[in-house]
Write a structure and sequence with these properties.
TIM Barrel, alpha/beta, globular, eight-stranded parallel beta barrel, 10 helices
Length: 234
């Protein structure tokens, strides 16, 4: 299991939110400088999100492009990637994997036909689907929209179209109060594809439990920025 530092961008700054709520944002500096620090610390992969684009209130793609240009480690990126043209554009910036959230949710009713075309065009290894979940059901559009779609049912329908999943338990994200192990384990065990877990991780015990549960990786944000958890899990 690898640890993936989160670089969430809002208003041109690296921030962290609580529960996905914009008014809880706390800034931690320049996104490029922060990204370079994580690379220097030994990060093998960075998790970069354009929060403004995800919420439909702005665009930080110039900063994302700069991060991809300056960094040597791979970047997984999400936020406002809601059409096939955006996928092509961001992959063209050198992003290793594009995270598809609302795009995939909207495609659910069409049996993921658009996602299947993207997989055939760019390869499944470049596509990561966000499984943003609250109470066992998918939420979309920056976590603001309830869908009523069961989380594991959503994942089951994706078959071999994507590399894996980014599972975020929205209820615990950013609160630094630990993970919901039972629900998270259920999600990880529901698929043979890699699952990256995000949300609530705040201790070495959380990391150990997630590794035992079979998570491929874990995204850590606020716990790292607040010094509650060091970058190296051991």
């Amino acid at each position: 299991m690898i640890i993936i530092p989160a670089v969430d961008i809002k208003g041109g700054a690296c921030v962290q939110l609580v529960g996905g709520k914009p008014d809880t944002a706390k800034a931690y500096g320049d996104p490029l400088e922060v990204s370079l620090r994580w690379q220097l610390a030994g990060a093998k992969l960075l998790h970069v999100i354009d929060l403004d684009a995800a919420l439909g209130v702005g665009d930080n793609s110039d900063i994302v492009a700069l991060i991809c240009e300056r960094l040597e480690v791979p970047v997984e990126f999400g936020g406002g990637v809601r059409d096939s043209g955006s996928v092509e554009r961001f992959l063209g910036l050198g992003i290793d994997r594009v995270i598809l959230g609302t795009f995939a949710v909207e495609d659910y009713v069409n049996d993921f036909k658009r996602l299947n075309r993207l997989s055939e065009t760019f390869g499944r290894d470049r596509l990561l689907v966000a499984v943003d979940s609250r109470g066992g059901e998918i939420v979309a559009r920056g976590w603001q929209e309830e869908t009523g779609i069961k989380t594991t049912e959503f994942m089951d329908k994706l078959g071999d179209m994507v590399w894996g999943f980014l599972y975020t338990d929205v209820r615990v994200e950013g609160r630094m109060k630990g993970i919901d192990l039972k629900r998270t384990t259920g999600v990880v065990e529901s698929t043979d594809l890699p699952v990256v877990v995000s949300g609530g991780v705040s201790s070495k015990d959380d990391l150990m439990l997630l590794e035992e549960a079979g998570a491929w990786g874990v995204v850590i944000g606020k716990a790292l920025y607040e010094g509650k958890l060091s970058f190296l899990k051991d």
